[in-house]
Write a structure and sequence with these properties.
Elements: H1 11-47, H2 51-56, E1 68-69, E2 77-78, H3 86-93, H4 98-101
Antiparallel strand pairs: 1-2
Length: 103
C-alpha cells in the first residue's frame, strides 16, 4: 500500500482524499454485502427450507426442573426463576424458608 504523507497535502487535497475513501468504503461494503447474500442464498437453496422458516427458527428450550414445591399442594411447584408464586410468598410470610420448600 502506498504511503501518503498527510502533512504535505492541502485542505482541498485532503478533502478529495476523504471523499475518495468514503466512496471506496461504500462500494466495498456493497460488494461484500452482495457476496454474503450470494452465500446465504446458496445455503438456503441447499437446505430445503425457506428463508422465512430459517429466520423464524428458534432453538428448543429444555424444560427447567422445579426446585420448590408447595407443602400444602404438591401439584404447585416453582423452578426458582422469575417472580415468586403467591404460595411461595405465603409460605415465607408464615415463617418458612426457601430451603424448607426445596424438593
Amino acid at each position: 500500500m502506498a504511503s501518503i504523507n498527510l502533512e504535505e497535502l492541502t485542505v482541498a487535497e485532503l478533502d478529495r482524499l476523504k471523499n475518495s475513501i468514503d466512496s471506496a468504503i461504500v462500494n466495498r461494503r456493497q460488494s461484500e454485502l452482495m457476496n454474503v447474500r450470494r452465500q446465504v442464498d446458496e445455503i438456503v437453496n441447499a437446505s430445503g427450507f425457506s428463508l422465512q422458516e430459517i429466520l423464524e427458527a428458534k432453538p428448543a428450550r429444555k424444560p427447567v426442573e422445579p426446585k420448590y414445591q408447595n407443602p400444602d399442594n404438591p401439584d404447585e411447584t416453582w423452578t426458582g426463576r422469575g417472580r415468586r408464586p403467591r404460595w411461595v410468598e405465603s409460605c415465607i410470610k408464615s415463617g418458612k424458608t426457601l430451603e424448607e420448600l426445596a424438593i
